[in-house]
């Protein structure tokens, strides 16, 4: 968030601050009619060009980015301890005992201790399904690994659809600005034919150029950076799925629950990669808190 605010301040200072220092007046830049034309056209094009599912996925991607920012290391700790505890339950008490937790994660004491993870319902569903399939496919971990990899790839593609749509919208913004400029020039040409004063014509041309400015500014200073940030967030979000996948495959390969959780640890990118000692401490804390 600090970098986001810093970047916004630098953009505002560089563009509008230098405009003001060079004698520009803000009222000459901010014209509501041009802004409504550019933003309204962009919004309409975005709604026409995307399905309701993509719009819903965009909300989910933004929510995931905000959730990751709030949780950070707490999410990593809960995910790793949850993975370890589930695998330890399977190893010590058998798959039947594990099923009791997988049947209703919201009421499972194991899942309830991991509130941040439990809030990520898609990751919980993936974990539950993966563990169920793992219990049925022991001895065929290669096939399960490929299956989980394909599912993760499919989930990532879906999460990237709204980000790609936002990238395309950003690329289109200069064109919407040109539409506003052309319409402004049409009005100026009409007034020239009607014998309007030169000062009035010049003012209309300047207003028309404001539309182009809005389009270019929205593309390169607003939407493109946001889309790029969301694409990075999606990549990091998927490491949670990779963590679960790596841990389960390691467990099926004969690794202990702790070493299996360590295999998952190496997939995480939510913050600074936690050390093995940190993982061991989290696991001991989870065992002591049982």
UniProtKB/TrEMBL annotation:
Give the coiled coil ranges.
none
Q: Which residue windows are transmembrane per the record?
A: 28-49, 176-199, 205-223
This protein's UniProt keywords: Cell membrane, Cell projection, Chemotaxis, Cilium, Flagellar rotation, Flagellum, Hydrogen ion transport, Ion transport, Membrane, Transmembrane, Transmembrane helix, Transport
Main subcellular localization, coarse class? membrane
Q: Where is the MotA/TolQ/ExbB proton channel domain?
A: 138-241
Instruction: Give the membrane topology.
Output: Multi-pass membrane protein
- PANTHER family given in the database record: CHEMOTAXIS PROTEIN MOTA (PTHR30433), MOTILITY PROTEIN A (PTHR30433:SF4)
The protein, known as: Flagellar motor stator protein MotA
Query: Which organism does this record belong to?
Result: Pandoraea eparura
């Amino acid at each position: 968030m600090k970098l986001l605010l810093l970047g916004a301040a630098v953009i505002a200072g560089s563009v509008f601050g230098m405009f003001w220092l060079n004698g520009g007046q803000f009222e000459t830049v901010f014209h509501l009619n041009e802004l409504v034309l550019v933003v309204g056209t962009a919004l309409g094009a975005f709604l026409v060009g995307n399905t309701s599912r993509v719009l819903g996925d965009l909300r989910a991607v933004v929510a995931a980015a905000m959730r990751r920012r709030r949780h950070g290391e707490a999410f990593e700790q809960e995910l790793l301890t949850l993975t370890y505890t589930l695998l330890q339950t399977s190893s010590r008490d058998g798959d039947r005992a594990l099923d009791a937790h997988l049947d209703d994660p919201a009421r499972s004491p194991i899942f309830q201790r991991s509130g941040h993870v439990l809030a990520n319902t898609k990751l919980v569903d993936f974990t539950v399904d993966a563990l169920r399939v793992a219990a049925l496919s022991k001895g065929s971990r290669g096939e399960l690994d490929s299956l989980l990899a394909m599912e993760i790839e499919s989930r990532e593609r879906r999460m990237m659809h709204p980000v790609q749509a936002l990238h395309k919208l950003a690329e289109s913004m200069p064109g919407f600005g040109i539409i506003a400029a052309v319409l402004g020039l049409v009005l100026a040409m009409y007034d020239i034919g009607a014998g309007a004063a030169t000062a009035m014509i010049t003012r209309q041309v300047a207003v028309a150029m404001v539309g182009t400015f809005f389009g270019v500014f929205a593309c390169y200073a607003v939407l493109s950076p946001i889309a790029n940030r969301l694409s990075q967030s999606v990549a990091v979000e998927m490491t949670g799925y990779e963590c679960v996948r790596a841990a389960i495959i390691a467990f099926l390969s004969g690794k202990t629950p702790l070493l299996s959780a360590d295999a998952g640890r190496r997939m995480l990118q939510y913050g600074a990669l936690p050390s093995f000692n940190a993982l061991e401490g989290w696991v001991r804390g989870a065992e002591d808190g049982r």
